[in-house]
C-alpha cells in the first residue's frame, strides 16, 4: 500500500471512529457461507465467470482496465484483458504491461531463496554479514532475512522517496542507506509491513550475487521462465516502454505518468498477464523450476513460530514472502500490490495446483474501491471452484470487554512528525452484549465486521474467513494481529485526547486573535477606554505566540498533505513551520508573566480567566508538538 492509500485508509478510519462514537449498535453480521459443489476449473468456465463478473465491476467503480490470469491443472487456463490500457487501446493480456506493485516482493523473496538454496545466504544469520553499510538498531537481537521476508524486522514506515511520478534509474544502496527508518519493534515479535525491509533483502541479493538487482532478476527468474514482457527496470527498456498501460485515478480522468518506485525490489515490477501466468505455474511446480520443491514448500510455510511471535502465531502468518490467505479450508498463499494507480492481487492454491492474478489500472471513483473488488474476486473464485467450510466453534465466556478500545497500526510513523496521522487512522473495537466484538471498519477490508472468539487468543469473522490473534500481557491487550503482516496497537487515553484538546486550543487562540481587533474597534466606536499600559509588552508577545501556534498547525497540515501526496515538502518549508511552532511554545513564558501581573494588580476575573484560558491553549498546542515530534531536529518522513 502506498502513502496515498495509507492516507485514504486513514480518512475512512476517521469516519468510522465518528460513526462509532454516535452509537454502539453492531453492524449486521453476514450470513454464514454454505458451500456448494465446485464448478469445473476449465478455460470455458473461467472465461464465462470473468465475462459475467469483471465488465460490470469496472463500469460500476470507474476503472479503465484490468488484466487477469488463471492457471490450473498444470496449464494456463486463460489470460484476459478487459477495458482499455489507453484511449482506444484495449488491454491485451499478452502485450500490455501492468504494474503489480508489491507482488514484486514475491519475486524478491524467490531470488533470496535461490541464494539460500545455493548456500550463499543464511535465513537466520544477521544481515550485517551481507551489507556494506550499518543499520542502526534499537534492539540487540539479530536482524535476519527471515525477519525481512516476513515483515517482522521492526521498521517503522517511511514516505519520502516511496513513489515518484518522474525520475531516473534508482541507486538502491543510496535509497536504503540514506536516512533509513527507525527500528521500533524487537525483531521477530511484531508483524509490521515494511517496504524497506523487503528492499533490504533485494539489496542483499545484489550484494551477494555481484550484479545489480534488476539484472539478477532478469537472468535468474524472468529469462528462465520466458517472461520476456516483464522487467524491474525504471524506466522500462525501449522495447517495453511503449506497451505499458496508462495509469488512472479513475476511468474518466487523464492518464498519469509512469511511476518510479524508490526501492525497486519492493514494488517496481512491470509485467503482462501472460508472464504472470508463467510465474504462477513455476511457483506451483509446473514447467521450469526456479526452486526445488522443498524450498517452495519452505516459502509457503509460516516463517516464524510461537517461540518468537507468541500468541500472534495463532492467526494466519507471513511465510517467506507470501501471506497466508486460506479460503474455505483450502491452503492459499497470496500477495497484493498497490502503486498510486495500479492495484493487484495474486492467490495460489499449492495443494490444488491453481492460481489467479488480477491487476487494475485505475484507483476508481471511490478511492479505495479496488480493496473490495480484489477481495471479492478472490472470494468468488474460491467459492466457485474450491468451496468448503472452515470448522470453528465459539468459546464460552469471551473476553470481548478486554479488546474494546481504540487502536492504531504498527505500520505507521512512530518517530517522525507524521506520527500525528495516528490520530486520524484509529480503529475502534466495540464489545457487544453477546460476547462478540464489532468493527465499523475492519482494518483489512474497511467494511463493517463482527468477530467471535474461537480460542484463547483467536477471533474469527462471523460468516467469513478472517482471523485475529490477540496478545495479552499483564491482563492488558498489547496487540492484535490481522492479515498476517499488520498489528493493531492500543492507543492510550492521553494520546487519544490530543486531537480534541488541540482542536479546542486552536479554536481558543483563533477566537482570541479575532477578538483583539474586534474589541479595539468596538471600544473605539463606543468611545470606551482600552486596556492600560500595564503588561502591554506581554500582551503583544502572547498574541504573537497565539498567531504562530495557529499558523504552525496550518503549516503542518500543508506539509503532511504534500508528503502523503508524494510531493516532497522542502526542508526549508518544514524548518520554517518548526520556527513558528517553537515561537508559539515560547509564548508560554510571556503568558505566565502576564497572568502573574494581572493577579498582582487585581485586573479582574475576566482578564485573569482570559489569560488562563490562553495559557492553557498555548500549552495544549505545545504539548501536541512535543508528543508528535513536531519540534524534533530530525525531519525525516
Q: How does this structure look, described?
A:
48% of the residues are buried. The strands form 4 sheets. The protein has an 8-stranded antiparallel barrel. A 7-stranded antiparallel beta sheet has the order 3-2-1-11-10-9-8, sandwiched between helices. The chain has a two-stranded antiparallel ribbon with strand order 4-7. Helix 15 runs antiparallel to helix 17. The N terminus is likely disordered. It folds into 3 domains: 134 residues, no CATH class; 352 residues, 3-Layer(aba) Sandwich (Beta-lactamase), CATH 3.40.710.10; 134 residues, no CATH class. The chain is globular, with a radius of gyration of 27 Å. A hairpin with a 5-residue loop joins strand 13 and strand 14. Helix content is 40%, strand content 15%. The longest helix is centred in the last third of the chain and has 34 residues. With 637 residues, the chain is of the alpha+beta class. GO terms for molecular function: hydrolase activity. It comes from Glycomyces mayteni. Keywords: Hydrolase, Membrane, Signal, Transmembrane, Transmembrane helix.
First-residue to last-residue Cα separation: 16 Å
CATH superfamily of the largest domain: DD-peptidase/beta-lactamase superfamily
Overall CATH architecture of the largest domain: 3-Layer(aba) Sandwich
Q: Quick one: how many beta strands?
A: 19
Rg value:
27 Å
Number of domains: 3
Organism: Glycomyces mayteni
Domain Beta-lactamase-related: 51-366
GO molecular function, one term: hydrolase activity
Protein name: Serine hydrolase
Amino acid at each position: 500500500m502506498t502513502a496515498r492509500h495509507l492516507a485514504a485508509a486513514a480518512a475512512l478510519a476517521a469516519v468510522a471512529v465518528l460513526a462509532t462514537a454516535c452509537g454502539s449498535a453492531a453492524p449486521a453480521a453476514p450470513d454464514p457461507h454454505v458451500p456448494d459443489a465446485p464448478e469445473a476449473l476449465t478455460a470455458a468456465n473461467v472465461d464465462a465467470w470473468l465475462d459475467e463478473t469483471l465488465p460490470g465491476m469496472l463500469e460500476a467503480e470507474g476503472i479503465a482496465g484490468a488484466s487477469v490470469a488463471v492457471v490450473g491443472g498444470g496449464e494456463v487456463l486463460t489470460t484476459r484483458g478487459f477495458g482499455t490500457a489507453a484511449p482506444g487501446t484495449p488491454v491485451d493480456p499478452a502485450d500490455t504491461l501492468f504494474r503489480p506493485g508489491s507482488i514484486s516482493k514475491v519475486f524478491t523473496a524467490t531470488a533470496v531463496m535461490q541464494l539460500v538454496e545455493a548456500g550463499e545466504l543464511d535465513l537466520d544469520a544477521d544481515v550485517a554479514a551481507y551489507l556494506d553499510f550499518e543499520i542502526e538498531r534499537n534492539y540487540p537481537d539479530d536482524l535476519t532475512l527471515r525477519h525481512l521476508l516476513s515483515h517482522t524486522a521492526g521498521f517503522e514506515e517511511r514516505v519520502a522517496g516511496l513513489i515518484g511520478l518522474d525520475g531516473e534509474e534508482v541507486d538502491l544502496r543510496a535509497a536504503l542507506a540514506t536516512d533509513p527508518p527507525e527500528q521500533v519493534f524487537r525483531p521477530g515479535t511484531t508483524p509490521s509491513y515494511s517496504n524497506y525491509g523487503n528492499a533490504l533483502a533485494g539489496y542483499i541479493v545484489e550484494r551477494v550475487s555481484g550484479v545489480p538487482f534488476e539484472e539478477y532478476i532478469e537472468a535468474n527468474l524472468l529469462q528462465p521462465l520466458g517472461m520476456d514482457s516483464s522487467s524491474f527496470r525504471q524506466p522500462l527498456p525501449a522495447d517495453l516502454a511503449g506497451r505499458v498501460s496508462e495509469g488512472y485515478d479513475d476511468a474518466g480522468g487523464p492518464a498519469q505518468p509512469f511511476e518510479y518506485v524508490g526501492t525497486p525490489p519492493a514494488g517496481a515490477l512491470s509485467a503482462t498477464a501472460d508472464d504472470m501466468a508463467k510465474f504462477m505455474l513455476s511457483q506451483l511446480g509446473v514447467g521450469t523450476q526456479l526452486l526445488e520443491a522443498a524450498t517452495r514448500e519452505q516459502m509457503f510455510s509460516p516463517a516464524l513460530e510461537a517461540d518468537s511471535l507468541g500468541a500472534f502465531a495463532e492467526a494466519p502468518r507471513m511465510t517467506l514472502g507470501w501471506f497466508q490467505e486460506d479460503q474455505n479450508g483450502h491452503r492459499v498463499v497470496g500477495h497484493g500490490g498497490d502503486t498510486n494507480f495500479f492495484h493487484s492481487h495474486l492467490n495460489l492454491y499449492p495443494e490444488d495446483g491453481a492460481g489467479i492474478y488480477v491487476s487494475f489500472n485505475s484507483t476508481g471513483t471511490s478511492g479505495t474501491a479496488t480493496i473490495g473488488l480484489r477481495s471479492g474476486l478472490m472470494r468468488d473464485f474460491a467459492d466457485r471452484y474450491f468451496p468448503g467450510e472452515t470448522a470453528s466453534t465459539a468459546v464460552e465466556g469471551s473476553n470481548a470487554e478486554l479488546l474494546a478500545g481504540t487502536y492504531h497500526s504498527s505500520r505507521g510513523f512512530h518517530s517522525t512528525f507524521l506520527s500525528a496521522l495516528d490520530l486520524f487512522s484509529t480503529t475502534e473495537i466495540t464489545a457487544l452484549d453477546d460476547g462478540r466484538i464489532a468493527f465499523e471498519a475492519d482494518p483489512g477490508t474497511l467494511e463493517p465486521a463482527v468477530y467471535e472468539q474461537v480460542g484463547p487468543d483467536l477471533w474469527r469473522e462471523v460468516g467469513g474467513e478472517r482471523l485475529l490473534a490477540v496478545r495479552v500481557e499483564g491482563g492488558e491487550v498489547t496487540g492484535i494481529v490481522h492479515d498476517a503482516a499488520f498489528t493493531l496497537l492500543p492507543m492510550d487515553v492521553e494520546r487519544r485526547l490530543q486531537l480534541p484538546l488541540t482542536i479546542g486550543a486552536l479554536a481558543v487562540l483563533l477566537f482570541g486573535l479575532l477578538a483583539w481587533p474586534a474589541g479595539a474597534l468596538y471600544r473605539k466606536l463606543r468611545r470606551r477606554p482600552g486596556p492600560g499600559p500595564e503588561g502591554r509588552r506581554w500582551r503583544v508577545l502572547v498574541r504573537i505566540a497565539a498567531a504562530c501556534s495557529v499558523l504552525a498547525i496550518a503549516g503542518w497540515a500543508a506539509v503532511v498533505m504534500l508528503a502523503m501526496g508524494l510531493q516532497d515538502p522542502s526542508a526549508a518549508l518544514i524548518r520554517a513551520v518548526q520556527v513558528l511552532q517553537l515561537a508559539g511554545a515560547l509564548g508560554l513564558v510571556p503568558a505566565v508573566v502576564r497572568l502573574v501581573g494581572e493577579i498582582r494588580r487585581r485586573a479582574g476575573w475576566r482578564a485573569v480567566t482570559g489569560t488562563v484560558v490562553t495559557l492553557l491553549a498555548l500549552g495544549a498546542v505545545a504539548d501536541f508538538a512535543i508528543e508528535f515530534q513536531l519540534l524534533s531536529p530530525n525531519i525525516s518522513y
